[in-house]
Write a structure and sequence with these properties.
Structural class: alpha+beta
Order of helices and strands: HEHEEHEHEEHHEEEEEHE
Mean pLDDT: 79
Number of domains: 2
CATH architecture of the largest domain: Alpha-Beta Complex
CATH superfamily of the largest domain: endopeptidase domain like (from Nostoc punctiforme)
Strand order of the largest sheet: 7-12-8-9-10-11
Largest sheet: 6 strands, antiparallel
Helix content: 25-40%
Radius of gyration: 27 Å
Low-confidence stretches: 1-15, 17-48, 171-175
CATH class of the largest domain: Alpha Beta
């Protein structure tokens, strides 16, 4: 009897152990599944600034044209095919065309290769405009990214000073309108800013006048109502860079100017 009871007891203990082992495995698996689905992965470089607008991790660039007429012709052709293309002139004086936003280099390459096979484009390059070196700590990394990006945006905007204004324009050759200028400056530095001034205003995070930083965009209502109709890029010390209007050139202006003070409607930040 004693042996039988001991046997039953052993079986009961074994089954109990087996049951708890299975339960432990299930709980552990659920916990892991919850962790995987509930917690986002560590932020990638492109997300460190908590951008209000999307970054452009990779983009496609075409050519290095000595003639901006060729770059403009190619840009127009790509736009007719539904591609959001634009071109600009770099410091060397060469005109270059860019289009597209891709999360990976492989995705950009496959898209460009398909367009090349269709005869839409020829030689292409894959660029990573939103890129920086890595400091040691995350907070210093974020600050370094922010300061570096602010500086590059302002330097890019300054490079367009002297280019003529053109309504609807987004190129060095034919000129920029106000929102075409800010869009191009941001996109060249890896941030996908909308095309229109009113859309740029809605896309950004509001910033008070006392908290303005270089590369914030500042907005004005210049048509006699409260509708946003003009935008510039703040460059610091109460100054901003903008494309002022027909017959004029991209230039610096002051927020203390009576005209701009009267029509000022606020500022927006995007990173």
């Amino acid at each position: 009897m004693f042996g039988i009871r001991s046997g039953h007891r052993c079986w009961a203990i074994c089954w109990r152990c087996f049951f708890f082992a299975i339960l432990t495995i299930l709980i552990t698996a659920c916990a892991k599944e919850s962790t995987i689905s509930g917690n986002p992965p560590p932020p990638q470089e492109k997300n460190l600034l908590n951008n209000v607008i999307p970054s452009i991790p990779f983009t496609i660039q075409l050519g290095a044209f000595q003639s901006s007429v060729r770059a403009e012709r190619m840009t127009n052709g790509l736009q007719e095919k539904g591609l959001d293309a634009y071109f600009y002139e770099d410091k060397s004086g060469l005109s270059k065309v860019r289009f597209g936003r891709f999360d990976t280099r492989a995705e950009a390459y496959d898209h460009a290769r398909a367009l090349k096979a269709e005869g839409v484009i020829d030689t292409f390059y894959i660029l990573q405009p939103f890129k920086n070196s890595k400091p040691t700590h995350k907070q210093s990394l974020k600050n370094t990214y922010r300061k570096g990006l602010e500086k590059r945006l302002i330097e890019t905007a300054k490079g367009f000073i002297g280019v003529p204004y053109r309504w609807g324009g987004t190129s060095v050759e034919n000129g920029f309108d106000c929102s075409g200028l800010t869009m191009t400056v941001y996109r060249l530095n890896g941030l996908e800013l909308p095309r229109k001034a009113s859309s740029q205003y809605r896309a950004g995070k509001p910033v008070s006048n006392h908290s303005l930083k270089p590369a914030d965009l500042i907005f004005f209502a210049t048509n006699g109502d409260d509708q946003i109709s003009h935008v510039g890029i703040y460059s610091g010390n109460g100054k901003f860079i903008h494309a002022p209007g027909r017959g004029k050139y991209i230039r610096k202006a002051s927020l203390s100017n009576a005209y701009f003070k009267r029509h000022y409607r606020g500022a927006r930040r995007y990173f």
